[in-house]
Amino acid sequence: MTKPDIRRPLTLRDVSEACGVSEMTVSRVLRNRDDVSPATREKVLAAARELGYVPNKIAGGLASQRVNLVAVIVPSLSNMVFPEVLGGISAALEDTGLQPVFGVTNYLAAREEAVLYEMLSWRPSGVILAGLEHTPAARAMLENAGIPVVEIMDTDGEAIDSVVGISHRAAGRQMAEAIVAAGYRRIGFLGTKMPHDHRARKRMEGLTAGLAEHGLELAATEFYEGGSALAKGREMTEAILKRVPDLDFLYYSNDMIGAGGLIWCLEKGLDIPETLGLAGFNGLEFLEGLPRRLATIDACRREIGERAAQIIAGRGMDGVIGGVRVELTPVLQPGDTIRRR
Amino acid sequence: MTKPDIRRPLTLRDVSEACGVSEMTVSRVLRNRDDVSPATREKVLAAARELGYVPNKIAGGLASQRVNLVAVIVPSLSNMVFPEVLGGISAALEDTGLQPVFGVTNYLAAREEAVLYEMLSWRPSGVILAGLEHTPAARAMLENAGIPVVEIMDTDGEAIDSVVGISHRAAGRQMAEAIVAAGYRRIGFLGTKMPHDHRARKRMEGLTAGLAEHGLELAATEFYEGGSALAKGREMTEAILKRVPDLDFLYYSNDMIGAGGLIWCLEKGLDIPETLGLAGFNGLEFLEGLPRRLATIDACRREIGERAAQIIAGRGMDGVIGGVRVELTPVLQPGDTIRRR
DNA sequence: CTGAAAGCGCTAACAT
DNA sequence: ATGTTAGCGCTTTCAG
Questions:
Q1: For position B8, which CATH number holds?
Q2: How many angstroms separate the first and last alpha carbons of chain B?
């Protein structure tokens, strides 16, 4: 083996010495600049490959004051919606030379602040983060960072810079309209107890407001935390119907608990959607395998990721252009659990 | 609306000037070193907070030759198993000062190589990556990186450094034993077509080998790609039973398609587990909400993440210690879909 | 097209 | 307990 035994990571200088070309020119080749003669380029590439040189982006980033990282901060990875957003971001960033870096907050504002601080300390080219609600310190950091910031998922509120999402209040209202139009009158809401899931809260607010316009109000609510969402959906459904047996519609704050509820109802032989209507939220692909299709509203997860990434990718690091606002309009998918009339 | 002052990112020097303390001491305070007097510490902290200073880890990393990042590379985020691994890693890294950075390969070896190259160029403190199969170039990079490397999920093969996982071949065998012991004889395998899901492949190999020991062989196989796993599970189950109606057991390569199959079978009124037994793989929490509990083998996802992170966190950057090998032994959960005798 | 010099913002290693 | 000096490995800028 001709490799140096020393475990010091290789530097440009090592490559330079190995091929007899100046460090500067080696650097040019490795950055794919086109002002190098083909001959030298080959020589350099061969040497770099031979040695197994991996460039040091820390040094490069410091020297160039430019880093190809995009910070992406989401509340959770465990409910299938954010992984899809991340998929959209990754795909859209694919050929831009930009690289997403993910951070998770567990729906904790303080954790978001900490993760953001950590990520900004790497001087990324942009930030994508979920939601419009942040601690004052987090807002300040974002405003001062001097890089494009895209807040995603939610458009109900004031954005720091750009925003891509849907109105969850409108989604709640839209569902209220559909429920009322289908003739349901005794509506229950089932959701997570998480106080920091602002979007679930807004959907409930939208639902309530929408019902109010028809002189209706929620007949019952049920909240949960932790555990398997599918199992919780079953339990909550049983519980809410025991408490308030005359409900004729259940609106779940997400498809997973909705699916659990649906499965429970079918097992009990309830007449869905005649006696009881059901609806969830998100438009999870997962619903396609269920015995009946749960009514839902697509949250446009992948598209949100893609659009957000495009906004970051499309803007240089210089002058901060005014924020872009993209409000997608989700479509209600009535499935088989809202009666048609 | 637009802020008039062009915002050059703040440096240590700005903080230093703002509080009249040398850059060096400011640096000490910001790194929480205890060799600074409380008085100066407060002064510095106040100034830093006031200015909204965010340290530049690029410069810090270059100067100290040390970076608190751990590269984590997984094939996918979309099937619930890796998000759980990442959760375990994040939790275990929580108070170590180390920060995970995630990369996704989509089960593509070439993509893994590219992501790895990118991540190593940031000189992380360690690497955690799924599987033992890598391109030669990727292996070379890992061997030369001079940092701890933990390969996770799978122990069937030769590790580069450390490894934490389960034997998927053994899991397949274990399932074969349980199936045969329960008296099933006509066994079908349903799985993904992905040629690069080595672990699914090994489970199938283990199953085949285990059956062979009892003079049995697979009576049918069915593969899918893309789409909703739950829906695919239904379709495949219908298809395989149409092709080979006398099957008495279906082994699915993951719980999601298994759940789809289970739902389909229950709808069709098949006598589960008497006429037909079913089993999946992973031990997804999700199964708890289903009408029957699908038999499965827990893949120990969270624990794998935790143990891998501990290995990285427990080792300094100096001398590379011999690799650690952790083989967890997953427990078969028979659920309600394997008959008991 | 190629090279030499001068930092990027921070911290290790010494002073004091 | 605090300050000074000298880089970390690369890229920018400017000369050949």
A1: 1.10.260.40
A2: 75
